[in-house]
Amino acid sequence: MSESLSRREWLKRAAVAGAAAAVPVGALGAQRPEQQARAGTSFATLAAAEGETLEAITARLIPTDEHGPGATEARAARYIDHALGGALAASLAAYRGGLAALDRFAETAAGARFADIPADAQDAVLRAVEHGSAAGFAGSAAFFAMVRSHTIQGTFSDPAYGGNEDFVGWELIGYPGVRTAVTPELQRMDVAPPARHVSAYDYPAFAAARTRRTRGR
Amino acid sequence: MAVELPRTDVAVIGLGAVGGVAALPLTEAGLQVVGLEAGRWQSARDHAPDELFNNYRGWPDSVQKANREVPVHRRNPSAPETRASLHPMMNAVGGTTLHYWAQSWRLNPWDFRVASETARRYGASRLPAGTTVEDWPFGLEELEPYYDRVEYAIGVSGQAGNVEGAVDERGNVFEGPRRRPYPMPPLRGTGFTELMTGAARQLGWHPFPGPAAVNSERYGERAACQYHGFCNRGGCHLDAKNSTAVTTIPRAQATGRLDVVTEAHVRAIRVDGDGRVSGVEYVKDGETYVQPASVVLLASYTYENVRLLLLSKSAACPRGLANNGGQVGRHYLSHAQLGGVTALFPHDLNRWYGLPAQGVAVDDWADDNFDHAGLDFIGGGNLWVYSDRRPIEAASMATFGRAPSWGSGWKAFVMENADRTCGSYLQKTTLPYEGNYLDLHPTITDPLGDPVCRITADYGENEHRINDFIQDRMEEWFRAAGAIDVIRGGLGTMGPTTHAYGGTRMGDDPETNVVDRWGFAHEAPNLGVLGASVMGTSGAHNPTLTAQALAWRTAEHLAANWRSIAE
Known about the structure:
Oligomer: heterodimer
Radius of gyration of chain B: 23 Å
CATH topology of chain B: FAD/NAD(P)-binding domain
Number of helices of chain B: 12
Strand content of chain A: under 5%
Number of strands of chain A: 0
Distance between the termini of chain A: 25 Å
Structural class of chain A: mainly alpha
Order of helices and strands of chain A: HHHHHHHHHHH
Structural class of chain B: alpha/beta
Helix content of chain B: 10-25%
Radius of gyration of chain A: 19 Å
Strand content of chain B: 15-25%
């Protein structure tokens, strides 16, 4: 691989990640994540209303809070939306049905669509959905488990798939990043390997596989 | 109308772990071999370090034959059926050796003699009720030369524990004698494996680095492992994982006598009027071909070996090939390998890099390596911890009852603990039982209309008792290393797994076995069967190296006895 290219890329990424980390906690917490997301996201597979609901769910599952960015900044909903047009197409019907049922339940329980109710009411709705106790929403627990696992994928997977934007997911759990060679020092228990945030597909050896792998994401 | 191809000496069905090994001694002996492989060639550049692709999407740009014929499972004939979305194995030249963990164990001596050794040491009444276990037709000493050949042909890294009777405490002191050390030193340790090694020694146990078909140093033309991770269901971008696609298959091709046919979906083995096999029928690009062969070696996976025999019905074998005795599908077992213990430590472990084969093993509680006189089970388990963590897996960690499963509380928990947890891999003695078997599903088929395999099987009391005992030992080990909490996984049931044994068991008695001691069918002498489907016991260690040693032995026997078997 071209070492200079990857180092340049890495430095660029590191600068972005560093800038994000330097944002004061209060400033991040004060943002309206759902507004930010709606402004930036147009959905490729889901209808706009479905996408808004999904966006709002992911924002509660991995919230943006005093500990920093979450699924919104990682753009987990975009990852799911793209994947539903490709690798996760088999789940599209389950999403359509589940998002509609969840909005109906939110309207009954809290008087408005899920995206338009306050965070604590959203959490109450999600708890009911998670535990299968949401009236009129058959199979809600399986829907919840599916969305949770895909939200985790969208937050912590390789950014080539459209989520984990700016490596916020990897920063969150302290994953030191994709390397192609690891020295014994990087496997010691008393040292934390420095973060090296590049996509696997930024390595020239795998660049050719990127399009094939992430088509439809 | 099928296209009839020119005759070959040997047709091998499946170029994976075992077919890919057998091809080498066959071609080196001068035989012409056609290897029929459902998958395609994959290259190092396909093996990006990508967790989503490897662990969640099932290698979607590889051939998906296996995923279209996933076996159906039920615990017993009246239990509900379940069917997973992904098959545990994959299709490619090299098969699942492309993405396996590459742990390359020999079985211990006891595993070949479970029935007689149990009777001798504790009395025959200690064999669990309903088990159909038999001794193997030979002991470890018969297989040792073939283990040795495979270890050197593919390349295995490890620390010997017993070379010609000289026990070495750095290795597995419980292993049977080997003629020489491994061809490469073991994979290196990590800070975490050193912690666990020290804790095991404190307990008076015998920890050691496990054997792996991964290069700890340059081996021939191929590079050493770089420990970057993503080896767990991932291919190696350096060809440092010793899949048959980069080891024995290219060497067999270099003889000029191996013809690799990719994307060949085999549907039946053909039989002549005398009950001898005459060739193989397969579909490629929508066209049906018949490959005539003097000898056929069936080398797909356990479920597919059984399935293909049962699908190969003829006038001579109305119940399926080699099944007039009704033994095909019997003595099935799926390794008791779930039921792990997961620990939480009060500090980071730095398990982000490495590979599942880079770890430390304890064999003190495996097989009959400890006295069972006061216990209510036979057998035991191997304890294994290793360095391998990937980001999606890490974020999906258990919360030990200390945090909710989503929201700010969950997020704070994983931020603190993502690198403080560690699972364990506990492989346990698993026995065959009367009620456990494989057959064809009566209604569910693959896209060609061929029935998929049906598993009817569950663990017995013996497996559950071992599980409880082994989880206690694993918890003891983690606690000694400083873990502050543990959770125990359930053992599950005998659904489709990467460690499926039996179905075409090897033995001298044709009443209870499908193949003879050399791996050839009692009912069809020019049909050989390769793979763990011939194994009658599991031991407490990964099966691949044993299946490969058996495959090499069958191939060598065939070459040495060509006229009597083929003509």
